[in-house]
Amino acid sequence: MRQLFPVTDMTAAEPDREWSLDELADAYAYPEEADGPDGVWLRANMVSSLDGAAQHDGRSQPLSSDTDMRIFGTLRALADVVVVGAETVRQEQYRPARAREVFAARRAAAGQAPAPVIAIVSSSLDLDFSLPLFTSPLVPTLLLAGEAAPPDRVAAAERAGAQVVTAGDGTRVDPERAKRELAARGLRRQLTEGGPRLLGQFVASDALDELCLSVSPTMTAGSAQRITGGPSVTVPARFSLASVLEEAGFLYTRYRRF
Known about the structure:
With 258 residues, the chain is of the alpha/beta class. The chain contains eight helices and ten strands.
């Protein structure tokens, strides 16, 4: 893996040497803005083909690589909470985040639980509560819903051991309020893995602080979604390049909001 643009003040790895997980964790460490009782930082992790597709046949995995998955795991290991849309949970067959021994000391030193919380954004709470995500997580799964979420589904979620967090009026979840509600629970290092509609909502509400985008050297054609969906913003959100890593034609980029 080659470093093309400074990641931190760490020494760049030699070309073609696989970076260790510790090096990746240092490179992708959350900024100081996430620390402290009032701090919060929301980053997104997505993959895209060269022609802008976020999925192929409805899933992101065909665009990914082994290194992309190592970065995916590292970003999860650094996060307090992983925020994901209900449709992505269903399509990607989400399972509970797992504790990883290689990151245990780092998480303990940061005062974090052994694994990040999974927080699912859902207006209907139409989810299968018999899945391992609800029956066997290391830490309880959160559901972010609006005040008018169906009472029977709220009750079903709570019976399954999930915690329902009100983060919006009516049935909709407000992205900025969701970010604040999670931070109020001490979940300040936030990571969203999409899908595109949820990420689009975070962008439109100006709640996204950082984008970690893996650019896959693939072309898909077709009509696949982009990494964001939904209505366009009035003025395009502007981000600055923080770092680029390259391996086997993949570019692993980080952009931070101005």
